[in-house]
Amino acid sequence: MDQNDDVFWNPFSSVNNTTTTTTTTSTYTDNFISDSDSDDDNNNNSNYIPSTTKRLDYMIQFLDRKLSVADDKPAVYDRPLPEFVANGGGTGIFKPPLRAAVHPNRPPSLEVRPHPLREMETGRALRTIAANETQLWGGGESGVRVWEFKDMFSSSCMFRVDEGEDAAPYSESALGVSETVCMVGDEASGGGGGVVWTGHRDGRIRCWKSKSGSGGIDEDGFKEMFSWQAHRGPVLSIVMTVYGDLWSGSEGGVIKIWPWEAIEKALSLTKEERHISALVVERSYIDLRSQITANGFSNVLSYDIKCLLSDNSRAKVWSAGNLSFALWDARTRELLKVFNVDGQIENRVDMSDFATEDEVKLRFNVTNSKKELGFFQRSRNAIMGAADAVRRVAAKGGFGDENRKTEALAITAEGIIWSGCANGLLIQWDANGNRLQDFQFHSHAIQCLCTFGSRIWVGYVSGMVQVLDLEGNHLGGWVAHSSAVIKMAFGAGYIFTLASHGGIRGWNITSPGPIDSVLRSELIGKEFLYTKIETLKILAGTWNVGQGRASQDSLLSWLGSAASDASIVVVGLQEVEMGAGFLAVSAAKETVGLEGSSVGNWWLEMIDKTLGEGLTFERIGSRQLAGLLIAVWVRQDLKAHVGDVDAAAVPCGFGRAIGNKGAVGVRIRVYDRIMCFVNCHFAAHLEAVNRRNADFDHVYRSMSFGRQSSTLFNNVTAGASSAVQMFRGTNGATSLEIMPELSEADMVIFLGDFNYRLDGITYDEARDFVSQRSFDWLKERDQLRVEMEAGNVFQGMHEAVIKFPPTYKFDKHLPGLAAYDSGEKKRIPAWCDRILYRDSRSTLISECSLECPVVASVTQYEACIDVTDSDHKPVRCKFRVDIARVDESIRRQEYGDIMGSNEKIKRVLGQLCKVPETVVSTNNIIIQNQDTSILRITNKSGEKDALFEIICEGQSTVREDGKASDLHSRGSFGFPRWLEVTPSTGIIKPDHIAEITVHHEDFNTQEEFIDGVPQNWWCEYTRDKEVILIFKIRGSYSTDFRNHRVRVRHCCSGNPTHGGNSASSGPKQSQPNLLHRADYERLSGSHDVFDHLKDLQSP
Questions:
Q1: d(Cα 102, Cα 810) in Å, to the nearest integer?
Q2: What pTM did the predictor assign?
Q3: Smallest Cα–Cα separation from 110: which of 900, 880, 712?
Q4: Which of the ends of the chain has fewer CB neighbours closer than 10 A, N or C?
Q5: C-alpha distance from residue 456 to each of 477, 489, 589, 680, 856 (Å)
Q6: Whole-angstrom Cα distance, residue 1010 to residue 253?
Q7: Among 111, 900, 108, 901, residue whose Cα is nearest residue 514
Q8: How far apart are CA 445 and CA 408, in angstroms?
Q9: Is the pLDDT of residue 210 over 70?
Q10: What residues form DSSP beta bridges with 738?
Q11: In this predicted model, what pLDDT tens digit does every residue of 139-172 receive, in sequence order?
């Protein structure tokens, strides 16, 4: 990379520095990894030791796996049983989900915070993120987190990393803070370190400052500087304008402005004066509702302010409700325009209907003094009023327009505004609120938008991310998360996406682009360094209890000893409780979200005792549908790695509505792999083979885990469910194939009374073969085996070879095989009760790896013939499961090493991120009252667009000797209110020129608000003022930029005495000015301008 093109701007450089162009070198990786002194090097070396040890452990584990595969002689007690595999698997919905070390259908990502377990997120879930040049901030339900980019790849233990969470190191504020709804960063405030403003559910706005030094965040972390009660309701949106004011929006259309002057005063106070800081800001607010009322706009009052957007290019602010927008002047704070999502201007209405509280009281007293209306007259008035209200709401699109509501706003570098709607529509607006065009690339709701350079990033509720260019052309898209993408933020060369489940990923701003394939291949090549294999055992048991209750001895015989070395225990029961009345009540309860029964709870409690629940195991989830019951227990030492527990039920009875037949399921995440357990009871009777096949197909296709288990973590909110429809095999922008949720699991275990019988055999023949233990001949007549071989049911599923007698039908409480049905019907013995599974393997010899992350084998498959409490025998199956998982801390370090050392990546980024050569026509401007000056920026690059942003480094007062002193920056490096710079952002095409207008606006009235009431007084300028404008120039993909400094001095010598008419008095005598006013040659057109400037060099 050309070092001269790497430019890093220091916003706090000295004002007396006469250099007009700042060129400081940095690279993409330098934003994350900074130089350290010797002490830090020692700390980093000591912190690097654990990661090196991990790498060695994983390499040894990798070699052991290779040697064990070659040897292929497992221990006798762990030796897998032979299995029968059904046909029809490996295609369509029965194909194992695609897994890889690096996802092949999306760019490689930086895992800042891998998908956390939902149960660990209770009360601490992240809701929003924001970023600046050095930090990533996250706001959650109870506190604020901050990640330092330079420590992102660190394995240091001095930062907080939650147990069971493989996130990058971070620091966290004190817990107990109200839920964070929105946040915005401000790098100019706070005395050099910058601050972050957060809006909260309790209506407060908080100011945070991060204390970081050469060693990162110190032990005290970051502190809340001060906070104040901003709104009665939640703070839904917050933004800083080009003039440094803080705007906040809340429910009911409430927008308040917190002027920079009050914020500056509050920030200047000492720690001991924090209580005064809060009071100063809290009383300084400007309530824009008075502006709305005065101008006759009423509709803004009715919508929550979901989004606020600052158009710094033209000094405007956008506010958005569900179906309408308002456009404000950021300098004068006046309402300019109100329009709906169709771009139609909202008419002003008679505000007499919108009375103040005092007017309402007055009208009430007057009404009481009049004669009371009759009943019919009052009824007529009420009906007419209701009808009129319905017509007004319908006219405004209140009915059926939920899918059109605005969810997100963003602005591009060229000043075009984009809004995203709940129906997936993207709408493009110009700076004046005129609707230009719309685009639709995805049918799901848009949740967030983010722009950087020449690209627009769109996040959807489906977890999809799409990238567009500034013209709206689709560049690429991928499934970024397994749940909704709720927020995006740019920082340090990455677009960070926050998913609703709390995971955060960083995507390189060049993606999709040329470095993706290089980075992917490099990470795949290092897979063995960050892959860890976990091994656990799962005990699965099924039993049709025939509406009876089992003894403790029976449960111990079935589950007791078998669970001694199991990590997970899954139990499925059928016919826990039956009867027409119970089934009807159960169906009614299901319609209102209720489940369970006293008998079901009895069974759960009995199994709890059998497994030593609370000491050895803990029940994490259960689900009951009529007589079907499933429950999952996890060993205590595994609990930290198990979560995201969801449950589901699918009735297959009469009309697919009654639960006498059907399935219940529990889904969990173990070591970041999805496992589903499904307990089934299919149609009965010998001849109902097709109905049983149809029951399985219905269950497999329709089981949806959108409902959390009633057992575990009852305080987890329903909205946090991780059940999301997944999408497979797509990377386009238009259509996605919706896959059944069971097909997206890494492992599925089906257990239950499948009710498949034996064909072509009599009762006596079956008993004879059982008594001789001639099971092979019986298995040839097994309906399930025949249907699986034909690919009609349980496609691709595995079952261990059966070596136990048929489990149905027995006389109760009679021991041995002589107890087969002796009743009048003499039902033919059959293997009704079965346990089958599917793991990640596409072939039988697949090795456990990140491409095939779950590999299972059956080590025990048997029936408990000695248990006599039911007409079915309980069956149990023990699995040995290898799970490959990623050590994200190691992979993050490998990711950083590749980005920093790979020559091809550095070469490509060097070309993409090169800062175009530009020339600014002047570096000094003097303006007087209401003067306007024009300066020009020329893009001398013949190939690349130049993006510019103009900010104000600060304002200073000019002393009598003509020198400027006492530089003060405004919030977000905003302009002083007397200065207009238009446009302040934009894109310059190659060999083109941008003209920038610098205008002085009269601002002789000093205005201050106290409790929303303006307090104005006359203030005449008596001294010259000077601001330093920074022209930040960068390329479409570059995070570095080249700076041009331009000094703008406001000379007050031409000000009139009363500031009204500048022509009324001539200029006064003043001290000689050290700056020379910029002179411009009269040029006839833009071609002349370019010819005049093309040979200039940047000053």
A1: 52
A2: 0.84
A3: 900
A4: C
A5: 12, 12, 47, 47, 43
A6: 21
A7: 108
A8: 10
A9: no
A10: 727
A11: 999 889 999 998 888 755 445 555 446 889 988 8
